[in-house]
Amino acid sequence: MEDKAGNLWFGTTKEGVYRYDGRSFTQFTMKNGLNSDTVLSIMEDGAGNVWFGTADGLSRYDGKTISRIPLVVPHTGYLQPSGSSIDTPPAKNMVWSMMRDRNGQLWFGTTDGVYRYDGTSFDRFLDDARIVNKDDLHLRMVDCMIEDAGGNIWFASGMLPGMEGIIRYDPATGIMTRFKPGGEGWIRRMVFDGKGHLWIGTRHRGAWRYDGHTFMQEKDGLGCPQIMDRAGNIWFGGSENKDGYSSDNGIWRFDGRSYTNFTTKDGLGNYGTWCMLQDKAGRVWVGTRNVGLYRYDGNRFIGLSE
């Protein structure tokens, strides 16, 4: 994630979070106030606070201090997946995804379900009586959330106890609609392109594109779509091997007509892509499984991990 000041933030597994200011990396861990040293998601709010979704709930950095932010739901305490309210939070409520919508409201996808924060208090999304939930969806383990041009919110349901596919929420009607491209319930990433088409990465059935009417499966070898760059290209990781972390397919870039493949010959390692971003200077950063961080300067990928 790139913040307003141009700093880049990178979450890790068991090493906390790193901030890159263009010159050097600074590490933040539990010693600095993080709930956990496994950081799964990062987001900046409208006030410039940086939020960290960790393996043990939410942390927030105000520029000076990192604080634990309890996911407290007013009057009802913490709502368990069973629907029963209790006074203590779920143990190790992992925060897999975060999103800031057009109105400035913050959304959090957790093991326990989706929560919202309006700047004052949290609520559990599915407790909203206006929601039409005909499929009795639980929205646990949401890996990704994204807002479309019409203000609809899309949820990508992750591994069990998720596996609910793609869910579209229409705030105007309250209706939630579920899709399972190719019958797949485990959705990892979603990206909108310049035409408003939704690109989708699944765990077991490759990459798909939704044009508003039909789901179309894309070419073999593609992993999850990660970003649309400023030129309108869609970037993908390669397909996962059975071990769950390596990939033989490198990275793919789609320009609307054809795919370009980047591999170890271009400086990449032989591991799967976990996340990507494009910074303000136009460089593409790639976070991978087990072998760290790469940066693409337009010609070659450079490894930046020790």
UniProtKB/TrEMBL annotation:
InterPro entries: Reg_prop, WD40/YVTN_repeat-like_dom_sf. It comes from the Bacteria. This is Histidine kinase. It comes from Candidatus Kapaibacterium thiocyanatum.
